[in-house]
Amino acid sequence: MIKSKVIIITVLFLFSHILHAQTDEEFLRNVQKQSFWFFWNEVNPSTGVIKDRAANVLYEEDGYTLGSIASVGFGLTAICVGHSQGWITYQEAYDRIYTTLNFFLNSASRKNGFYAHFININTGLNVGSEVSSIDTTILSAGALFAGQYFKGTDIEDMAKQLYEGIDWYWMCNGNDPFLNMGWSSGGGFDVNEWDDFNEGFLLDILAVGSPTHPPYNSPTCWTSMNKPVGTSGSYTFIYSPVNNALFVHQFPQCWVDLRNYSWKGINFYTNSIKATLANKEYCEVTLSYPVNYWGLTACDAPPHIPSGYKNYGPGPTIPNPDGTIGVYGPGASVMFTPTESIAALKYIYNNYYSQMWGKYGFMDAMNIYSNWYDDEVIGIDQGSMLLSIENYFTGMVWDEFMKIEYIQNALNTMEFTPDTDVTRPQPVVDFFVIGNRLEWTAPSDNTGTVKKYYIRYLTRAITKPADWYEATELTHEIAPKTPGEKETLMVEGIPPGTYFFAIKSEDNAGNKSLLSNPTVSAEINPIKNTLLQNFPNPFHLKNHDHITLRYVVGKTGSVKLTACSLGGKIVKQWDKGSQAAGYYQFDWDGKDSSGSAIEPGIYILILEIGGKKISENSIVVIQ
Q1: 65-111 pLDDT, tens digit each
Q2: Burial level of 393, CB count in 10 A (0-12/13-18/19+)?
Q3: The pTM is what?
Q4: Which of 390, 379, 383, 500 is CA-nearest to residue 438?
Q5: Helices (H) and strands (E) in the chain, counts
Q6: What secondary structure letter does DSSP report for 288?
Q7: Cα 462 from Cα 451, distance rounded (Å)
Q8: Residue 445, SS3?
């Protein structure tokens, strides 16, 4: 196992050096993929506990046994991302997450639902750290996301059990409106509270959303929180009073999608964009760092820093730079400032590859002025970068996390209001397959017609997000019809076999519907030129006002249909011109070429494609 792991890492490492020739998307995906392997490899697979940090040098084993529950939280979501990208299988992802949640529910040490900040990766025992409210928050955010991703499974049940078992009221230490930062058996509750704007924003959301143990006088922990407004260079925004490190803006929004929500007129996604740009400006303008060398945030520090770790920030009130930047500073800001963040990552990669790139991608931090380059990675930093990149590309983490009822309830209780349309289109409820033909009714949206469809197929039923993200997208050019109208699509271009299909729709505001109804499997075969039976047949002149004619084009060609009498006389002819492969239908009003109603009797409908007769059907007309 160890030998194969080293081989895989070696191949990935050697391959990564050709990133210079890749597009921005290819570059970011490789950064993300390398980061993912930290969460998959640096773990005790029997417990699911992920290390706090690891050596990032090829072939080097660090022997660390210190696990971080926050690293596990990021890792639970990272594993789902890894599955969605095809880096691991469904079963591998499911089994690892199941093992992890089972261990935390039944073996890891905890107090009133809260877990110790650092635990042993083998035993789950506290290694002398505090019981941490924010790290438990990150753990539960990752667990809830995994539960949503594997919705309807034991993983969802275990995630709910872990989350609903957290006693947020207890962490308020009596009738205190703010939650404490931690508790220890020797000293009781921490003297510090989550009473200022910072990464505790995520803690408040999960605490307020609790259906079992919400904090004292909820949601006062959020509404009474100090949210200072300050100016740094060209930007004015709400900041974290200590030094406004980037991670305080990044961590909550790795999961919570605030792009279209505001609180008392403040959009915190926009606020984070300003804070990120201010960080960049402070580095490049105020400090005269090289262009694209920025990222003041909590990270590893040069040897002259006593703890080897420091919370760097630009202020505006307490700046403390010394030339050190955290690479995940711009990396985890991709979801806020993609252009600036990608440029920064590429600058580091192109100029400091030999010092800053290892088996898990970028090292944690660097200081070009001290000629110091880290040789390790930190789980929470890798995780925030990985999740941010996914949100930038697909919004998958945001989209699934925002479906969780606890989160929606929390934002409503905290008085967040939509800036724009955030209502999802109605899901398709009558999606079904007949042969190679998909059919459904166009769904409704609160603004009218949906904008587009996403149709995917898989060899098992698509009943949960994990299935959907593993499934393959079906190429099509269907423009959604008015709600209530019938939609049809002929499946082509996929290998013959038995598949399951599912559909989502998206509206003009970018809201995606929930999954369509689970569908039965369909045997898909190559499309052939076929004249399908018309309906109704027989056609009653007194009862029906039209006949629906249907046919399939297997390969692009000129299409002609002819209705003639049994004696061979042409009654009506339709020249459809050149048509691409697919399913087609149109209505005939039962009138001949002169506009007169046809007489009762039997007629023959002939399909020609490319000038060749394909097939014919009979039409029975009754008075």
Answers
A1: 999 999 999 999 999 999 999 999 999 999 999 999 999 999 999 99
A2: middle
A3: 0.87
A4: 500
A5: 16, 37
A6: -
A7: 22
A8: strand
